[in-house]
Design goal:
Elements: H1 7-10, E1 16-21, E2 25-29, H2 31-39, H3 43-53, E3 64-66, E4 70-73, H4 77-88, E5 103-107, H5 122-137, E6 141-145, H6 154-164, H7 177-190, H8 192-206, H9 210-234, H10 250-262, E7 267-269, E8 272-275, E9 290-293, H11 301-314, E10 320-326, H12 330-343, E11 351-357, E12 360-361, H13 378-396, H14 402-422, E13 430-431, H15 434-437, H16 445-461, H17 478-488, H18 490-500, H19 504-523, H20 532-555
Length: about 575
Amino acid sequence: MGRALGAEHAEADPLLRPSGNAKFGDFQANAAMGLGKRLGRPPREVAERIVVELDLEGLCEPAEVAGPGFINLRLTGEALERGAAALVGDAQMGIARAHEPQRVVVDYSSPNVAKEMHVGHLRSTIIGDAIVRVQEAVGHEVIRQNHVGDWGTQFGMLVEHLVDIGATGEGAHIADLNAFYQEAKKRFDADADFNGRARERVVALQGGDAETLGLWQKLVDESLLHMDEVYARLGVLLTEGDVRGESSYNDGLGGVIEALEAKGLLEESEGAKVVFPAGFEGQDGEPMPVIVQKGDGGFLYSTTDLAALRYRVSELDVDRIIYVTDARQKQHFAMMLAAGEMAGFVDERVRTDHVTFGMVLGEDGKPFKTRDGGTVRLMSLLEEAEERAGAIVAEKNPGLSEAEMGRVARVVGIGAIKYADLSGDRVKDYVFSWERMLAMEGNTAPYLLNAYVRIRGIFRKAALEGAPEGAVVSVGHEAERALLLKLMELGSVVERVSESLEPHQLCGYLYDLATAFHRFYEHCPVLVAEDAATRDGRLVLCELTGRGLKLVLGLLGIDVLERM
């Protein structure tokens, strides 16, 4: 119990929760509720006994028992001052480094080669990027893996079309990947001669023909250029060096089949080779198979995913693998991982997490589309976000230079898209609304960015970069106390998200922090405080709040602004 009373642990300990009411205390412990039930005694009686035994000197004021057995705890002013001083001297703002750092693979984004990225790739990319940043913040070594779709029978069609349109030269460039793919598909369906040549290309590609592989690589390289443009515009950490596509596991597919066979796991079903992981049944009650090889000898996504799993465990020697995909793939990954465990590709030493998420919907409640019903290109969406944000900023602050206006539009527009995606529980669908995500009030990126801008404005007005050296926080107003307590929660919130993989908790924290700051700003004059010591202490709170906002927004992949 004594350890849990430390403010830096309060959010992480399930027996403690913020009371939500400064009148009653900073935290409320509920240990007596469950303990009373186990002991067969009234919880309030147990709580009163706990209070008698607690040693809170220097940490809390005398504890109080409330209601049926809650224990209200209020930190002393000295404890709060120590907490503020610790944050001032800690660049990590209370985020503890993992005692046993792990090697963590995060598998995310994963677009297909020869197709432009669209809105369907938005959530995996943004959520995965936030998870990577959080894992690194707590001290884990992260291996980013962009498992792009760069292999399969469709590449025979695409390579042959590349040859036919004469785009095989050194300087040739495919300006529109979507149009290129659609043209190839149209010819494949309508032109028997082209269809036959495309099928021959598939055989040549899979057989390792040097010319065909060279043309295939050109398609891959072209696609990576487009992907890199989107990733740069979106401001995520993925680079070309993080790409490890399906093709990279080709040489291991046969070994997967051999390993499954050696374990006696392979069965034949309608000519295909399958594995039946325990616990998976169809609607008819029959066991469901993982198909690993078709009757014609071809492999499937499951085979590639098993090869990737085997590689990550045996070659990369990871401790944790995090897959970030939409919820529709939940069963696929559950069955694939179960088959991997049966085969011995992964064991209890390695933790696997499937981070699922819902769909992006239009305001009509249907999958998000363009006005004419087409797929929304991701780059077009990002460009529109910057345009809309720029219009709002120009109206609000027309005095900004053209360069400043461009930067503000980018940060606000891209930040608004990211925050709208991350602020809701990821497992749920969310409605894409420009009006809501660009609003200056409410739980939005512009609201949070404006809080940071306001803080920087205080320091500009004071002609200071930060709080005066040696300034001490002395909590006298409840708004100061509430803000400092919220700042002291930052580390435990980040640590919790590193386990739960729920970025919306970071967004909830940010909104609470910004709200607490605005209450503080309203009730506690900073630059015109009653005396110099109070002024300097409040400048410390402003500086810490700015640092906290910048740090956690950064974990979401969102930049901050000095002005907007």
